[in-house]
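Can't paste images in this forum, so I'm doing it all in text. The chain is below; anyone willing to post the predicted structure tokens underneath?
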Amino acid sequence: MTASPTVRRRRIARELRQLRERAGMTLDVAARQLDMSKSNLSRIENAQIGIKPRDVRAALALYQVTGNDAEALIEIARGAQQRGWWQHYSDVLPEWFEFYVGLEAEAATLRTYEAEAVPGLLQTEAYAREIYRRTAGEDDLDRKVAARLRRQDVLRNEDSPVELSVVLNEAVLLRPVGGRAVMAGQLTHLEAVAHLPNVTMQVLPFEAGGHPAMNSPYVILTFADAADAAVVYLENLTTGLALEEAGQVRSYSLVHEELRRLALDPAASLVRLKEAARYFT
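Text version of the structure:
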């Protein structure tokens, strides 16, 4: 059983779509049989909205799925109705970002590249506060920062901490967000996180020149259960985009491997971090 209701909803969506296709039914036919609109069934199958366990049971009966297989899917549907911790911050987290946080909470591995700012999972409170001030203003600042810091629990989960591979553009280390004291604290924090056994941190130096992710920071999420397909997450100022096609995930995975090849190795990256920290102290 997966821990995140977001991941459970995504699993149910994919299973229902595959079962309908296996049964040879179009969206029109299945929706009529289930007494719902075609658009609603489409949104359920794309994990845009949830589905109640009783409606899952009706769909499984229509697709002639019974016994233990049916009960397992219904149990997942029940879990999809639970509330994740991030939903308590729905007043300050956009819906599209709640979806990402729900995936992040269940991810087994995260591979990410950042060009301008320290990733949210690695930010100190002071740095996060300054980032929000610069990008979103002062409204609800405390709650936004609290939600960001709560996300960081995945790095130190006692049972299964996420495996993080992060490549940071060297500019991230040198841009003085919040002033010298804030940056010194942030860089010291990065040094500490870099020593965690589940974290691989690399710095992409300026001398590496051009690279394949120059216009595209990203996060690649994979999950412990093979039934939960990997996702590439992209974000801009107003929305986020989840790419789920296997070819898209493979393309970004190749980019990440190339960035790791171009970047300093973890030991040399730690030296570069320490040099940057001394600059701000």
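The mean pLDDT is 94. The longest strand covers residues 107-114.
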